[in-house]
Amino acid sequence: MTGLNILSLQIGKDAANYFKNIYMDSKERIAKALTVATDTKVFDLGCGVSSQAPNEFKKWFPGRKAAVVVADINTWKALGEKVYGEFVAAGIPTKKYIIEKNEFHADWRYVDMVDHIIAGDFAAAKAIENDLEYVEPDAEKAFRPSSEAKYVAVSVGSGVINDLCKLASHHYGQSYIALPTAASVDGFSSFGASISYHNSKQTFSCPAPLVIIADIDVIASAPKVMTAAGYADLAAKVPAGAEWMIADLMGTEPIKPDAWHVLQDHLDDLLADPEGVAKGDKQAVADLFEGLTLSGIAMQAAKSSRPASCCDHLFSHILDMTHHRFHGRLQSHGFQVAIGTLTMCAVFDGLFKMDLTKIDVDACVKAWPTLEQEQERALEIFKDFPAPKLGYTEITKKYDDAKTVGVQLTKVKEGWPELKKELQGQVYSFAKMQDLMKKAGAPYDPSMIGVTRQMLKNMFPKVQLMRFRFNVLDLAKRGMFYDQLVESVFAPGAAWDLTKELN
To answer: How much of the chain is helix, strand and coil, in % rounded to 5?
Structure first.
């Protein structure tokens, strides 16, 4: 990204100082990123670095004598068995737990399972894993493990295993070591874990791992679909950054410089080789994994997922919560996010064709609904959703009164020429993003994950309401151009032309 220089943005007058060292090598970028990380102290990236895991355990977990390697049947073969053997050879008392499910996801059941693993009750963990009638506990019991921690978790796997170990470790007030096996998500280093709990995809507050060891020999050998998913997850930071810029101008969520610059300064470069990513080129995959990790560190610095996601991810959350399947399988987070990212790039294409200096602020303020009206709308939109009160809860958090809306729209109206210029420097066009997705091997049409364009269009009202985070659709609602903006994505000749549904 080229950087931000809008005076209304809350980066500061000396923002240019942040751009003096944009062209750093990987080691420099990582070192600088770790200075703003709140949780992660070590990020080893390179070929063969997994062998360092026992040494890092001894250094960063003094007084803790025992570890448990948590893997699934695939990641055990890819790296887990090797890591387990190295821990044993180093004289560290080590256990292993291999998840035997062919398909499992970041559901509360598996957080509960890892809680028991860390406590050393492997029989109870296996019973939870295989319980066909498992019932999620209530919130009070869910957050309070009844046993003391016996082991430090060593997570060996992709994003799901990492999130499970992250939240379960937090339940015991301790950290863990993450050894990713694929460049599939940005959650390895993020603050928080995305878990499905009581039919709702939620981000639970918990620290990132203390140590991340990313062995590119292993990661570059991961299934190509996983690497493509990671590329899509990193690409999502492009429109997500644009939505944060809007939220900053509106005064709802000011940009935090440390969180912004740790990734956005380098994002273009780290996305620059989609063909290499598709081929499994080690340098391209290393760049990708670095970008994903920097994204997570940005979230650590912000104590929020704001630097990494906005509407692009909400489409994915809706699909998760409705248990969407294609050819009998749940789709990966990254593949779902790919479609959300493309959709938001199309939204911005439509936004750039509008002249927001012509917003009738008085008319918008006069027409602005009350909180009670918005709550009723949310209940209607989510009435058939697995979490019917989700929209109600979130709109209650982010509702602004008519006077505040007037102030916000005035800022946009007056600042639109400069804001438009800056947004155009941040976000990619739909055509460019679609080309990148194609080259990386990620989905580039919703039909490729079993979603029709009409289904995608129907998601928009939920996307606007399902998180308290301010988004571009909130701006459109305030400015009374929401319908026009959505139609710009699905109209004849547009990105997701409904008359040209692909088979």
So the answer is: 55, 10, 35
Phi (first) and psi of residue 193, to 5 degrees = -130, 130
Give pLDDT tens digits for 247-303: 999 989 999 999 999 999 999 999 999 999 999 999 999 999 999 999 999 999 998
Task: Look at the chain and report how many structural domains it folds into.
Answer: 2
> At residue 365, what is the residue type?
V
Query: Beta-carbon neighbour count of residue 200 at 10 Å?
Result: 17
Strand partners, 95: 68
Q: Render pLDDT for 146-202 as a digit per residue (tens, 0 to 9).
A: 889 999 999 999 889 999 999 999 999 999 999 999 999 998 999 889 898 887 778
pTM for this model (two decimals)? 0.91
Query: In this structure, what token pair is assigned to residue 48?
Result: 């063969």
Cβ atoms of 399 and 486 closer than 8 Å: no
In a domain, 299, yes or no: no
Alpha-carbon distance values, 82 to 62, 99, 119 (Å):
23, 17, 23
Q: Is residue 113 part of a domain?
A: yes
Helix or strand (DSSP H, E) at 98: strand 94-99
Q: Give residues with Cβ within 8 angstroms of 171, minimum separation 6.
A: 115, 118, 143, 144, 145
